[in-house]
Write a structure and sequence with these properties.
- The structure is a single chain.
- By secondary structure, this protein is mainly alpha-helical.
- The protein has 14 helices and no strands.
- The longest helix is centred in the first third of the chain and has 32 residues.
- It starts with a helix and ends with a helix.
């Protein structure tokens, strides 16, 4: 019972309590020792009065979803290859795939901007989504590399020896064992993508408006309730997208019976 109790206490202390405190701060005036707590919704009114808020939120979700799909595809294939296969230059390729973590992101974005202009991807949402792969893909590859290393190649070879097709093997063996890795990649990728301001401004050229581009001006405000409301709004898209991915994982056809009826 003690491990469960400790886990609940840690969860309440580091996750639930800060969220509750942030919510209270967003709907109350700054607290004073001799004054009571006054409820107000002015912070959300000011936030919602921004004409670009909903547009930026929608585009942030679209770009985040596209970045996540690219990350899942690249991470699953590259992570599996690095975990299961030995080939010449493997260490060099792995180092190159992880190198964006060591190179300043602004330097990469400025270099890619010229490349995007030549491909007519500058000032487009697709160009922004592609540049968001730079700070996210290395983490994704590392996560899936570790996940596939834990699964081990012999387990997948057993499925192949039993006659499982590639899709059958992926949905009934790999995907259930990769759920935790997919959850980690989902949350990490979305949070990193939504927080990119500089590279979005460089590649998007001001034409692609995302949440950081309208929220950063609010950082100059000395209004704590407004800052708390901003933080809550910023946390909603990652939560919604995480729930959507979790729902898709629950609908995935894991059951061998599902595939047996189709063969």
């Amino acid at each position: 019972m003690r491990p469960k109790l400790y886990f609940r206490l840690i969860t309440a202390l580091f996750f639930i309590f800060p969220i509750v405190l942030l919510l209270l701060q967003s709907i109350t005036t700054p607290w004073r020792t001799r004054e009571g707590i006054n409820i107000q919704l002015e912070s959300f009114t000011v936030l919602w009065s921004d004409p670009n808020l909903w547009t930026a939120t929608v585009w942030s979700i679209i770009i985040g979803a596209v970045v996540l799909l690219f990350n899942l595809f690249i991470g699953l294939t590259a992570g599996k290859a690095l975990a299961f296969y030995s080939f010449k230059g493997r260490s060099l390729i792995e180092a190159l795939l992880l190198s964006p973590l060591l190179i300043p992101l602004l330097a990469v974005a400025i270099g890619l901007h010229l490349f995007m202009i030549r491909l007519d991807l500058a000032d487009t949402w697709l160009g922004v989504a592609l540049v968001h792969l730079v700070p996210t893909v290395p983490y994704t590859i590392k996560i899936f590399h570790h996940a596939y290393s834990q699964i081990g190649r012999p387990l997948l070879e057993q499925a192949e020896n039993l006659g499982a097709s590639v899709s059958h093997q992926f949905f009934t063996v790999e995907l259930p064992l990769l759920k935790n890795a997919i959850r980690s990649v989902t949350f990490l990728t979305i949070v990193i993508s939504l927080s990119q301001y500089a590279i979005t401004a460089i590649i998007g050229g001001g034409s692609v408006i995302t949440m950081p581009m309208i929220f950063f001006p609010f950082l100059n405000s000395a209004n704590p309730p407004l800052m708390a409301a901003l933080s809550i709004w910023f946390a909603v898209p990652p939560l919604v997208m995480y729930i959507a991915v979790e729902a898709l994982l629950s609908l995935a056809p894991y059951s061998p019976t599902f595939w047996r009826n189709r063969t």
